[in-house]
Automatic annotation (TrEMBL):
PROSITE patterns: FN3 (PS50853), IG_LIKE (PS50835). GO terms for biological process: homophilic cell adhesion via plasma membrane adhesion molecules; synapse organization. It holds the Pfam family Ig_3. SUPFAM superfamilies: Fibronectin type III, Immunoglobulin. GO terms for molecular function: axon guidance receptor activity. It comes from Scylla olivacea (Orange mud crab). Residues 117-232 form the Fibronectin type-III domain. Keywords: Disulfide bond, Immunoglobulin domain. This is Ig-like domain-containing protein. Residues 9-114 form the Ig-like domain.
Amino acid sequence: MTITVEYPPEITTEKAVVRTGEGDHVELVCLVHGRPEPEVTWTQDGHQLPDTDMDTKLYLPEGRTDDFMNHLSQIHVAHRHTLTIRNVTEKDFGAYMCIAENRHGQKDAIIQMTGLPKRPVITSSPIGGESNSYTLTWETESFYPITEFLIKYRKPHLDGWPANRSIVIAGSWETVSLKVRPVQVRDGARHAMTHTLKRLEVATDYLTVVRVRNKYGWSAESEHFSFSTKKAMAVLQSTSSSTGGHEAASVSLVLLLVAVFSLIMM
């Protein structure tokens, strides 16, 4: 006796965001499970795409040549459904929805195809090696050269603490914005960047965020990153002050004992 369990579609994507550019070749992939096997369709910004190469002629925009027939294609092997886009153009950017449906229900997932840079990831050490400066490094992904970056930084709180310690007032943001010479990337679309922040305070904690820009616009901000300038000098000063205090206390104690001894001898 064989029992077959049927269930509604389940769908996931290999990548939620695909970063690409003009002339590129990309594959958008969704993984679909369900019983009975779901039917899968794709849309771009709400417009249905052809589900087979043969159907492409029905979706040809007026005035397009047969070259467009090779622009989009769909295949699926087992549970893996792939929408292939060849010779990408700016018009291909947008939100692609993979829709799976069987008699038990429908499920969908969205893949965003964009030319914008990826949100930067800060890679530098949080412990700075300089007293009044800090070298910030980060990485991002972009099919196009990065043309500009924006760094914001501030102290997590102002010097000193409120008497009741119930409210912490953050420092104001300082901003650094610089245009950079575009550099073509050979290894995929990864960019490694660096900038040195100067005129910082000694042994001080800071908070920073980074954004980058390419020809299509700005990335999202990086996650907040905490760093500090070199603290060894402050520790040394603190130790010196502490040592000086102990020496002074020892001298005072000796003088007091001498005075007491003198009174006893009298």
